[in-house]
Amino acid sequence: MKDLVIKMMKDRGVKVEDIARLVVEAQNRYIPVTLEEANTIVESVFEKHEVQNAILTGLALDIAAEKGVIEEPLLSMLLTDEPLYGVDEILALSITNIYGSIAFTNYGFFDKTKPGVLAKLNKHRDKQCNTFLDDLAAAVASAACSKLAHTYRRKAGKENRETEL
Ligand code: MG
To answer: What is the rounded distance in angstroms from the CA atom of residue 60 to the CA atom of residue 50?
Structure first.
C-alpha cells in the first residue's frame, strides 16, 4: 500500500524527494539534515496506515472532481478550491494529529508560505484538481518535520521518554 500511495502522489506531481526538500528547507536552521535523511523520514511517514488512508481518500476526491463525477455544489467547490470548503485541510490535519504539535505548527507554516512543490501545485490547478493533494503533501512534510525533530532530540540524549512515532 505504501508504494501505491507514493506512486499515486508521484503521478499527480509530488515525488518523495519534493516533500523531503520541504523538510530540509523548513528544518535545516534548527537541525542538520541531509536530503537523503529527509527522504528516509518521509518514506517512513508513508508507512502509516492512517496516512495512506487519508491520501487515498483525498486523491480519490481530486480525481473524481476532474472526471466530473461528483454532484454539485461540491463539484464546483473542489474544482475551484473554494477557500471556505476546508475539508481538504481537515483531512490533512488527520495526518498531522498523529505527529503532535510540531507537525501542526509546521503544517500552518507550509499552508501559509507554500514553498517548493506546494507553489507548483497551486499554479497547475488549471490542468488538474489539486484541492486535496497540496494539503496532503504539506501534511506529510509536516509529519516528517516532527518526526525529525523528535528523533534528533532523542539521539542527542535530551529526552529518553520519547516513543517511536
Ligand atoms: Mg487545498
So the answer is: 15
* CA 63 to centroid of ligand 1, rounded, Å: 14
Indicate the pTM of the whole model: 0.92
Q: Is the pLDDT of residue 66 over 90?
A: yes
Phi (first) and psi of residue 104, to 5 degrees: -60, -50
Give the end-to-end CA distance of the chain in Å, rounded to a whole number.
Answer: 19
Cα(122) to centroid(ligand 1), Å: 9
- Please tell me the distance between residue 105's alpha carbon and the centre of ligand 1 in angstroms: 17
State pLDDT tens for residues 15-35.
999 999 999 999 988 998 999
Assess contact for 133 and 14: CB atoms under 8 A: yes
Ligand 1 mean position to 150 CA, how many Å?
27
Euclidean distance between CA atoms 164 and 152, whole angstroms: 12
Domain range 2-164, CATH architecture: Orthogonal Bundle (1.10)
Cis peptide upstream of residue 115 (ω within 30 degrees of 0): no
Q: What is the DSSP letter of 131?
A: T
Report CA(143)–ligand 1 centroid distance (Å).
17
